[in-house]
Specification:
Radius of gyration: 18 Å
Strand content: 5-15%
Distance between the termini: 35 Å
CATH class: Alpha Beta
Oligomer: single chain
CATH superfamily: Alpha/Beta hydrolase fold, catalytic domain
Number of helices: 12
CATH topology: Rossmann fold
Structural class: alpha/beta
Strand order of the largest sheet: 1-3-2-4-5-6-7
CATH architecture: 3-Layer(aba) Sandwich
Shape: globular
Length: about 290
């Protein structure tokens, strides 16, 4: 089914954090794609300032129906294909293929961009497994029967001690401080019912796999991730012939976890190695970085 688009392109909101000093002309911009139930602000807490301070031009997209972008009134009808179209629209405005960094649901959109050769490289953080979220969701609901109802409460601004405890258990490491959990709760918003179903049934409808392009990919998981444990993301890393890094003692929300800097440092090191091995000219197309592991 084609994505739900209005006759006009939706007005999309992005957060832009430019580096404090001019960055090398050959360095592609970074495009950050958020996970489900949050928006681009989840990147702006820690990751955007971090990478901008290291000389990267950073853009974080609010998918349709999220944050400041159009579509909140028809959020539940939006599909993953709509989110993909959002990312395509933003990339068209950047003028060159970015390095895409996706977290959870956003990592799936990053994969689609890679398949269309619209990205120069990708970093997949706590990525959705190849067969989708059904296995993970079933396991979580068996362990936490009230999980979905508490998530709905948080999206409506009703944050209880029970909800915070569940958020900590499911998304964060055991050492997470209460203020970190409250900060996360303030970022939570409703998610598209259709997109949730798309993710759950990914193994049934997922696009016909193409031979993955020879583009650089880094996969990073949390050692304590109860949503997508390392065992579930290894097949994804193999598909992309990607470097796989597991951050110890870190949960699913590794971009906001107490150990977020461990994850950010891994990504930064990979980006720096990628740049050191890239062509000297500014990359105008993803293919110019092909073959760099």
């Amino acid at each position: 089914m084609p994505p739900l688009r209005h006759p006009r392109q939706p007005i999309l909101h992005t957060i832009h954090r430019a580096p404090p000093t001019p960055f090398p002309a050959k360095r592609p911009p970074l495009l950050f794609l958020h996970g489900g139930y949050v928006n681009a602000r989840s990147w702006d807490v820690l990751f955007l300032p971090f990478f901008a301070s290291h000389g990267y031009d950073c853009h974080a997209l609010d998918f349709s129906g999220h944050g400041g972008s159009d579509g909140r009134e028809y959020l539940d009808a939006l599909s993953l294909d709509d989110y993909l179209a959002d990312a395509q629209q933003v990339i068209a405005g950047l003028g060159q293929a970015p390095i895409v960094i996706g977290h959870s649901m956003g990592s799936f959109i990053a994969e689609r961009l890679l398949e269309e050769s619209l990205a120069a490289a990708a970093v997949l953080l706590a990525p959705v497994p190849r067969n989708g979220t059904l296995e993970s969701a079933t396991r979580l609901l068996l362990k936490y029967p009230k999980f979905l109802s508490e998530v709905v409460n948080v999206t409506r601004g009703r944050v209880s001690a029970t909800a915070l405890h569940m958020i900590k258990d499911v998304y964060f490491s055991p050492t997470t401080k209460p203020e970190t959990l409250l900060r996360f709760a303030q970022l939570v918003q409703p998610e598209s019912a259709r997109a949730i179903c798309d993710l759950a049934l990914l193994g049934c409808w997922r696009w016909s796999p193409k031979p993955p392009p020879a583009l650089p990919v880094l996969v990073v998981g949390g050692g304590l991730d109860t949503v997508f444990p390392p065992l579930l993301i290894r097949p994804l890393a193999r598909r992309w012939n990607a470097e796989l890094q597991i951050v110890p003692a870190t949960g699913h929300a590794l971009i906001l976890d107490e150990h977020w800097s461990d994850c950010a440092t891994i990504v930064l090191g990979w980006l720096e190695r990628l740049e050191a091995r890239s062509p000297t000219r500014a990359p105008g197309h993803a293919s110019e970085l092909a073959g760099i592991a």
